[in-house]
Every structure is written in structure tokens, then in C-alpha cells.
Amino acid sequence: MSDGEVVFHEKQRLELCAIHTLNNVLQERVFTKETADDICKRLAPQCLVNPHRSMLGTGNYDVNVIMAALHSRELAAVWWDKRRAVESICISKVQGFILNVPSRVSLGMVSLPLRRRHWLAVRQVNGQYYNLDSKLKSPVCIGGEAELRAFLSEQLSQDVAEMLLVVRPDVEEDGSWLNPAPATSNGANGTA
Hints:
Elements: H1 17-26, H2 33-43, H3 63-72, E1 76-79, E2 96-107, E3 110-125, E4 128-131, E5 140-143, H4 145-156, E6 162-167, H5 169-174
Antiparallel strand pairs: 1-6, 2-3, 2-6, 3-4, 4-5
Helix pairs in contact: 2-3
């Protein structure tokens, strides 16, 4: 992606937030409902009712579909243990972030007192990080690295929120998505 390019943003349709999230994090339309359904069939070929999507076939794809889709693009998803501080993420090694957060259920203009799980993407474009949630009218600029860390911390503070780091397979394998732990001075090595 070169400087001056527009931020790609797919908007919410049906229960296809996982597909929109994948395309938004990749910054191009790669996946469709058909490609996601094909992944579901490969993941559970013998199942009459596929466990990786809605029983109604309207989407609502699970994390296995997201991980398989990323793998098909030679990317990996690293589950983030939210007990760690987001400061320990080596941001420069991460291609994007996929979050699964609670979301309000709406019926037209009426917001219901229900919450469901919702996938959303965060990605750097032209030096700025963007919230590419498909439920937003347009991408929302988060800002730089400090603002990104604050945004991720806020999202992960919700009880049921989860995050995946989208990285290259070599970054997943060598663990370089994680900053090395700072040395502590506790006197164990003879220093005070």
C-alpha cells in the first residue's frame, strides 16, 4: 500500500463480521461468504450442521475460520493473553489486530438489551492506526502507537474481549511479536 491510498473498509452485512474483519485487516476484498463457507466445509467435512458458523448459514464464523483464512494468505494469528500488558507487544512485527468484543444487538434503529460477540479489525495505514470495525460508518483513526496501545487496553478490559495478532509465520514461530522482558534488578545476581 503506497502513501495517499484510501483506507479500505467493508461495512457490516448480515452476520459476516468475520469476513469483513479479514478483508479490513488485509486492506482488500479477498474473502466472501462463499470462501468462508468453503473453509467451514474443509474444517468439518463430515458435519451435517457445521460448528464453525451459524446454523442458519448467515455467517457468524468462529476463530477457526479466521485462522484458516489467514493461513491461506500466508499469515498467522497469535492469540493474545490479555493478562499481559499491551506494552509487551512488538508492534512493528504485527500486521494487524483482530478483536472479538461484546456488541449490542440492534433491530433497525432499536437497540436491544442483548449482547453478542463481534469481530473487528485494527490496522496501520499510512502511518496511522485505524479502527476498521464493520459496524462503523467509516474507518476511525486511532492515531499512533501510544493511542493504539490505549485503544487495545480499553477493548481488552471488557470481560469477554479477546485479541489475535496477525503476523507472518516466521514472526509467530520465533515469538518476535513479543518484546523481550525488561531485566529486573532484584539482587539475585549480586547487584542491588
